[in-house]
Amino acid sequence: MSDTRRRVKVYTLNEDRQWDDRGTGHVSSTFVERLKGTSLLVRAESDGSLLLESKISPNTAYQKQQDTLIVWSEADNYDLALSFQEKAGCDEIWEKICEVQGKDPALDITQDPIDESEEERTDEIPETSHLVELPPCELGRLEEIADLVTSVLSSPIRREKLALALMNEDYIKKLLGLFRVCEDLDNREGLHHLYEIVRGVLFLNKAALFEVMFSDDCIMDVVGCLEYDPALVQPKRHREFLTKTAKFKEVIPITDSELRQKIHQTYRVQYIQDIILPTPSLFEENFLSTLNSFLFFNKVEIVSMLQEDEKFLTEVFAQLTDEATDDSKRRELVNFVKEFCAFSQTLQPQNRDAFFKTLANLGILPALEIVMGMDDLQVRAAATDIFSYLVEFSPSMVREFVMQEPQQTDDDVLLINVVIKQMICDSDPELGGAVQLMGLLRTLIDPENMLASTNKTEKTEFLSFFYKYCMHVLTAPLLANTAHDKNSKELQEGSAKINPVCPDNFQTAQLLALILELLTFCVEHHTYHIKTYIMNKDLLRRVLVLMNSKHTFLALCALRFMRRIIGLKDEYYNRYIIKGNLFEPVINALLDNGTRYNLLNSAIIELFEFIKVEDIKSLIAHIVDNFYKALESIEYVQTFKGLKGRYEQEKDRQSQRLSRYRRDARSMDEDEELWFNDDEDDDDGEPVEKRMEDDFSDSYGKYMEAKKGAANGANGANGGKTGIPPSSAAVSSNSSTSSLKAVSLPATPVVKTAVVGLVDYPDDEDDEEEDEEEEQTPRKRPRLSS
Looking at the record, which segments are called Disordered (predicted)? Predict the structure, then answer.
């Protein structure tokens, strides 16, 4: 269907009193047999699916607003709206609705809505005029008019009738004429009454009245009436602010007069809602829902009109990136784009997608790269807000842009590096901007929002890019502040835990804490890349220097970084920690903390408790071997005694395994002799031969594998045991009997701290399984580092 007159957007009002866009399609009015009546049907223009099917009920109140909107309620708290592309289409459907209901299309509302509280009284209301009778619009009757307007607010029926009366008699403009007279005469009493009247008319919540009150001819007089609040000693000067203080800045001249008028109107109405009108009470909170809708649709229209004017936006971005543009002009341009993006938040998701794609096509990201690197703080702050809108909309779009940059530019001016540098150089003592930028960086490097379905390599490619071009910029302040760590052993026992390398400056400490938070996120979500970086840069050692910081929150950040690494239970990390003796600064911090029971104390003990509970054997052995003497005096928790217990259990378990294998090796010689003796006494040769032939392939294959595995250890066997020469392997065969027997292999040599090179013998499998079941020992783990 190509008829643009019937092209509409379908909106529904959600629980937060905000309009949700349900889609774009084409509307028609058709008799639907199933619904037994004429209905409004909207079919999606994308796939023809049914977006809306609504029977035109004779008792439903339909309202026409702003020439292109039709609004109605179908059930309790379920409001619908059709927003037409063209006025002609709206008029056509409105006439059809009025025809079904038998109403005059000249009216902007078809029914008087009746709520439940008044339904019971409708029979008692005598037949009267359709409208409320208004007093003559004269100075002497202002008090009477104010009382009337105030009295109807509690009754939905009377509100509707008063609104119709005000529209039909052009009453609003007459009242505003009286306002000018009262102001000329300085008639304060009359001005106070006019304040009550205009405020009450706004609370009637009628779009048709808003169209009149917010027109160019009337809006400043409406603002004037609202200046004279009886509760104030002196009137506010809102008109002076709107006309003199608030300046409308056209960064690029707007030639469309309708667009200019819409921008002015929206700003002033927003000012009335946010500044002039008092915060509505619980009773009044729904009175201004139509005012919210009025602003909502205005903003949608402004964004749409600007978006469609490609010449205007192209000029904006051309001037924004032009080196010849002066600083004040560029500041205005950036603020315009920021406000433009803020307005776009009123759009529904599919419309917002189109909006940001338009900005991307016009070059918003290259422009941001330039302005975010400028010295002007206001420009940088506005650019950061724009960047946050883009990252929240589509992290993938930003990632795609930055990955194309290295081919065209130096590392220093990459967009992500510009963002990181701005975070590092934030001059705010509280680092408000740095915190915002850190959140945006975390969104960009979060694998959870990398779209594997559309681009399977996005995660790998972007993380490789980030660690190659950006990670060194992020970690530069951390490495610079931990460059010359003094050996902790040089610190005297009981001395204050202050390392001259650690930053005393609170702002620097906050920055390092932010960087550590981001690195901790990387440990959790980037397995391979961050592991390689930590190993290559010896990063954990540098981070643990901060355990000596006088700022406890920074020491906790360093500890949290290590805790996340240990929490992965990765043996590569464990070996790195053991080799570097990286528990030493943590244990020094625990001992320096003394008997204070604080967060640092609890966090360190939790780290060791985790190692104990998860039974990380390599770390337990390292801690007990190297630090137990320093820790054994800590008895208010059982953590360190528990670590010692785990260590002793593991040593006992290894000893038992070693002794068992020695015992098995000795017993095999005796078993072999018995086997040969039994074989000689066995007269029933056929079953034996058959059994041995069946077992031959399995036993011999296992024996050869075992023999190869033990060959290297055969020469180092202990005790008086000597290897059996090859000739001792008896293989006898004759016509009636064939006897095959695999002989025992030398015992495995014993290593000081761990069992290595153990061999599973063919004849010993069942015994070994039974022994392991009795002892309930866990599966073999990688050997402990010694």
Answer: 672-692, 710-786
- Assigned domain for 209 exists: yes
Rounded distance, CA 140 to CA 339, Å?
Answer: 46
Q: Facing residues of 478 across strands?
A: none
Return d(Cα 319, Cα 332) in angstroms, integer: 11
435, 510 contact by CB (below 8 A)? no
Structure tokens, 573: 């990390």
Residue 733 — pLDDT band, cuts 50, 70, 90? very low
**pLDDT recorded at residue 604:** 95
**Poorest-pLDDT segment among 58-62, 81-85, 420-424, 488-492:** 488-492
Contacts 24+ apart (CB under 8 A), 186-190: 187/139, 188/228, 190/139, 190/142
Joined tokens for residue 13:
């009002």
pLDDT of residue 523: 95
In terms of DSSP H, where are the helices of 204-344?
A: 207-213, 219-225, 238-240, 257-271, 289-308, 310-321, 327-344
Tell me which residue range forms the domain holding 49: 4-101
pLDDT for 103: 83
E strand or H helix at 21: strand 19-32
Give the whole-angstrom CA distance, residue 682 versus residue 687.
10
Cα 516 to Cα 167: distance, rounded to the nearest angstrom: 64
For residues 429 and 572, membership in a common domain is answered with no
Q: What pLDDT score was predicted for residue 248?
A: 82
Residues 297 and 426 in one domain: yes
**Radius of gyration of the chain, Cα coordinates, nearest whole angstrom:** 42
For residue 100, give both structure tokens.
């079904």
Mean pLDDT on 584-603:
92
Residue 571 has pLDDT above 90, yes or no: yes
Q: Which tokens is 724 given?
A: 């059996």
Which string of DSSP letters, residue by residue, matches 157-214? Answer: HHHHHHHHHHHHTTHHHHHHHHHHHHHHHT-HHHHHHHHHHHHHHHHT--HHHHHHHT
pTM of the predicted model as reported, rounded to 2 decimal places: 0.62
Q: Are 287 and 326 in contact (CB under 8 A)?
A: no
239 and 294 part of one domain:
no
311 shares a domain with 234: no
**766 burial via Cβ count (<10 Å: 0-12, 13-18, 19+):** exposed
Per the structure, the count of domains in the chain is 4
Helices (H), 372-505: 377-393, 395-404, 415-424, 432-444, 458-469, 471-481
As a whole number, the mean pLDDT across the chain is 78
